């Protein structure tokens, strides 16, 4: 009879015949791991900056528009003053859309990073992911 072995999870150390993954470089804080981590942080920071610029341009331009065109303040669609309608009602769907899009793109950046540091698949025909900054 063979001896029973209790398996509690994946092996925690790389086997001698297998090269260490790039994730080990990140955990061990090697210079290569630092480059990988900085690329993720740069992608996430760029994404956050783009979302903040878009938010500042859209919401920041409203007071300027009302200042340059005072007649807009007098417009009352649905019996509600236009500034109140824009800033009190319509801004919330915009914020939700920006937040949803930001979270989706940030998760995509993290998936690309995880694919980058994971061991390469044995299949040379495996799909190659785009850079994290593309299309963000």
Structural summary, described in words:
The chain is mostly helical and 136 residues long. It is elongated, with a radius of gyration of 25 Å. It starts with 21 loop residues before the first helix and ends in a 19-residue tail after the last helix. The chain has 3 helices and no strands.
Give the low-pLDDT segments. Answer: 15-19
Helical percentage = 55-70%
Morphology call: elongated
Give the structural class.
mainly alpha
What count of helical segments does DSSP give? Answer: 3
Q: N-to-C terminal Cα separation, in Å?
A: 58 Å
Beta fraction of the residues? under 5%
Extended strand count: 0
Give the ordered list of helices and strands: HHH
Can you give the mean pLDDT? Answer: 77
Oligomer: single chain
Instruction: Kindly provide the radius of gyration, computed on alpha-carbon positions and rounded to a whole number of angstroms.
Output: 25 Å
What does the largest sheet look like?
none
Keywords:
single chain; 136 residues; 3 helices
Could you outline the blueprint of secondary structure elements for this entry?
Elements: H1 22-27, H2 31-68, H3 82-117
Helix pairs in contact: 2-3
Summarize the structure.
This protein is an all-alpha fold. The protein has helices at residues 22-27, 31-68, 82-117.
